[in-house]
């Protein structure tokens, strides 16, 4: 039994449910995690790759996961990338690099 994988699977399921409730989109887990051509953990948010992390050190996840999400965004040929980090106690935070946020903001202001 791999407790790290189990924790990650649970976190992805929880994150998908939360995003489905919050956005109204049907968000679900991607299959094939860890592939060289990884395209994110969750699917269903238009134009967006979502990378999920439930690490013992959420600060480290905030530093590292946005870079992973950016590589996944490129693999998926999508426009946006965001990392969804679970903190102890169950609080979730969405994390982006400055470049990821700038891309989203420019498009939001153009609409």
**Bulk shape:** globular
Specify the number of helices: 3
Strand content: 15-25%
Residue share in helices?
A: 40-55%
- Characterize the biggest β-sheet: 3 strands, mixed
SSE blueprint and pairings:
Layout: H1 3-23, E1 28-29, E2 42-43, E3 48-53, H2 58-76, E4 80-86, E5 92-95, H3 98-110
Parallel strand pairs: 3-4
Antiparallel strand pairs: 1-2, 4-5
Give a verbal description of the structure.
The protein is an alpha+beta fold and 111 residues long. It has three helices and five strands, in the order αβββαββα.
Brief descriptors of the model:
3 helices, 5 strands, two-stranded antiparallel sheet, alpha+beta, three-stranded mixed beta sheet, 111 residues
Summarize the structure.
With 111 residues, the chain is an alpha+beta fold. Helix content is 48%, strand content 19%. The longest helix has 21 residues, at 3-23.
């Amino acid at each position: 039994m791999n407790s790290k994988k189990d924790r990650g699977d649970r976190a992805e399921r929880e994150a998908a449910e939360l995003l489905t409730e919050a956005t109204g989109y049907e968000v679900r887990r991607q299959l094939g995690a860890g592939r060289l051509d990884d395209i994110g953990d969750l699917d269903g948010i238009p134009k967006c790759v979502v990378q999920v992390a439930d690490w013992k050190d959420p600060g480290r996840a905030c530093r590292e996961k946005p870079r992973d999400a950016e590589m996944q965004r490129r693999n998926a040929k999508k426009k946006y990338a965001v990392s969804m980090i679970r903190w102890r106690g169950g609080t979730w935070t969405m994390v982006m690099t400055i470049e990821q946020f700038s891309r989203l903001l420019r498009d939001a202001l153009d609409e």
